[in-house]
Amino acid sequence: MKLIAFLEKKQQVLTDNHGRTINYLRLAVTDRCNLRCFYCMPEEGLEWLSRKELMTYEEMLRICSLLINMGVTKIRITGGEPFVRKDMMKLLTAISRLNGLQQLTITTNGVLTAPLVPELKKIGISSVNLSLDTLDRNRFFSITKRDELPNVMATLEALLQHGMEVKLNAVVMDGRNTQDILPLVQLTKDQPISVRFIEEMPFNGGDAHYSKLNWDYLKILDTIRQAYPNIQKVKDEAFSTSYNYHIPGHQGSVGIIAAYTRTFCSSCNRIRITPQGILKTCLYDNGVLNIKELMRNGLTDEAISTDLLYAMHHRAKDGWEAENKRKTNAPVHESMATIGG
Ligand code: SAM
Ligand code: SF4
Predict the structure, then answer these.
(1) Cβ 152 under 6 angstroms from ligand 2
(2) 84 lines ligand 1 (CB under 6 A)
């Protein structure tokens, strides 16, 4: 009786063994992509997940609904590139209608997104994260192996035209796009864009293991500060993964995400589900629960909730502990396309 009462109480709010409340789900809906960003996946030799390995939309809706009942209020759809999966707007529309969900957002590379912006707005998506590492067409090609910068810029324009909140994510890569930091910051002058620079992480689907990161958040900040000495720190929102700044006279803002240095773990409110339906309680763990299998084995929502709570109560304290605990003991070599960023 006591155990049941404990579980019932716990089920109201999803918390972990370190006292953190979980209210944010990042759901990766596909591993496939129409770009080949070198820091995310190799250009060739990729083995895509088969249809059977992927969660179906019905399964995704079920797990979203279950997690909303356990306290999740925000869902971000990511991938791979979400819009390469067929009928993505149908899934987004269905998720947007789930009772109790307060915020639905999406992370996209913008290649196919521009024509969909009015529909995204119509179903209540008011904020979009757009990935863009450079404003130079040649560098864009060299980073992504595809000549798609004009389509991405069309998406940026469409988002701004429709009054959507835009967070522009740029991975900072030593020797590849550090000359783009200031032009990207300059975008915040006349547009209400939040440009966020992300430390490069070792999730490129290969065997690269970064022992030293040359462009960490301090170096990125220093570079911006040299050009804009009057840049001001602004208060970071609760659970923010970025350190946020404002340049006087600019409409937008600048953020830096210390994704490799991992300075934000103590307030982490998020979980991730991969396209195969694997729960990750930390970006750096290698998956702690196969939710898809639980569903396909016929478990009830209650039984799945209990397993989710168990996983949350065995969560690593931070990204360093999660990485050390990886079962394989191998260095991180996943592709970010199966994690979702
Ligand atoms: N395809 C979509 C896109 O690029 O926006 C969504 C998925 S992508 C994996 C999500 C985010 O992860 C992107 O902003 C991307 O820049 C970031 N990302 C991918 N690989 C990364 C890496 N190795 N280090 C840091 N960020 C990475
Ligand atoms: Fe595709 Fe996004 Fe990965 Fe680039 S970062 S390869 S756009 S999934």
Answers:
(1) no
(2) no
The torsion of the CA quartet 228, 261, 279, 45, rounded to 10 degrees, works out to 90
Q: Which residue has the tokens 């991975």?
A: 171
Average the pLDDT over each of 22-31, 42-51, 73-82, 148-157 and give the range with the smallest value.
Answer: 42-51
Domain hosting residue 213, numbered range: 3-339
201-258 pLDDT, tens digit each: 887 777 555 567 889 999 999 999 999 999 999 998 877 888 999 999 999 999 999 8
Domains identified in the chain, total number: 1
Q: For residue range 31-66, what is the model confidence (pLDDT) as tens digits? A: 999 999 999 999 888 889 999 999 999 999 999 999
DSSP secondary-structure letter at 79? S
Average pLDDT over residues 130-141: 98
Q: Which atom from ligand 1 is nearest to the alpha carbon of 35?
A: 1
* Sheet containing strand 253-257, strands side by side: 232-233, 242-246, 253-257, 193-199, 165-172, 127-131, 103-108, 74-78, 24-28, 270-273, 278-280, 289-290
CA of 340 to the centre of ligand 1 (A): 7
CA 37 to chain centre: 15
Residue 60's Cβ-count burial label (10 Å; 0-12, 13-18, 19+) is buried
Nearest CA to ligand 2 atom 8: 80
3-class secondary-structure state, position 198: strand
Whether 138 has a pLDDT exceeding 50, the answer reads: yes
Q: Which two tokens stand for residue 141?
A: 């090609």
| Ligand 1 atom 14, closest CA | 131
Among the atoms of ligand 2, which is closest to the Cα of residue 107? 2
Q: Using CA atoms, how far apart are residues 82 and 116, in angstroms rounded to an integer?
A: 12
Dihedral through CA 275, CA 25, CA 86, CA 285, nearest 10?
-20
Q: Residue 171 belongs to a domain with what CATH number? A: 3.20.20.70
Cα angle, residue 269 at apex, residues 268 and 275 outer, rounded to 5° = 105
